Amino acid sequence: MAPVAQRLSAAGCVLEPLLTAMTVDGQVEECVAALEEYAGGPVVLIGHSWGAWLSLIVAARSPSSVRKVICVGSGAFEEEGTDDLMRVRLERLSPEEQAETKRLLAAISDPATDDDAVLARFGALMAKADTFHPLPPDEGGRDAVPVRVNGEVHRRVWAEAREMRRNGRLLEICGQVHCPVVAVHGDYDPHPAAGVAGPLSRVIDEFRFILLENCGHCPWLEREARDRFYEILIREVR
């Protein structure tokens, strides 16, 4: 989310912690420690995808550190409907890319796989499937700010987070969040919007849901949605 942090820095101070712990609790502790060291009071947490879940967990565990949470392109908070996620993604790829995705998925699921390049390639294919109208790199699109991929962090943390969703613990924790929460979601995002809006509206008192048109999983990379996305973020932060 470096492009988002850079854009928002024009409107105020921004902290973009790089989390590397191998457990959910470890990443929560890293985030809280960064807030305690660098933030001068309660902050607005903006989390994308898995980061949306993480931001809500941080808000529940350290309520004095967070005054609002903005969830961007969040994954669903319940198992129902998640089976369609990969089906939708595969339908948006060519037959060759579909076959490659299935091979990569098998490799990622294998604990013996120790190749960050495998996860990086899988991420590139999913980015293609998840984006409605992508900006080119020279206009702030994907790869404008390269990031190092760590497959081991992904495997361990995602396995734990997915189990938290399956057993209901994730939504239970979200119910302990008492600050305002805003979810921003693209209408082209294969992660089901209903799986975000429905569950969170049931357990969080101050919750709002904003659906962006012609927008995929990463709004700041979308030609038609980027400006509206930043308008929303700046308004909500202020």
Automatic annotation (TrEMBL):
GO cellular component: membrane
PANTHER family xrefs: AB HYDROLASE SUPERFAMILY PROTEIN YCLE (PTHR43798:SF31), MONOACYLGLYCEROL LIPASE (PTHR43798)
Gene3D superfamilies assigned to the protein according to its UniProt record, in alphabetical order: alpha/beta hydrolase
UniProt GO MF annotations: hydrolase activity
Name recorded for this polypeptide: Alpha/beta hydrolase
Keyword Hydrolase attached: yes
AB hydrolase-1 domain boundaries: 26-223
Keyword line: Hydrolase
Organism: Methanofollis fontis
Xref: SUPFAM superfamilies: alpha/beta-Hydrolases
Entry keyword Membrane: no
Superkingdom classification of source: Archaea
A Pfam entry, by short name: Abhydrolase_6
InterPro entries the record matches: AB_hydrolase_1, AB_hydrolase_fold, AB_hydrolase_sf
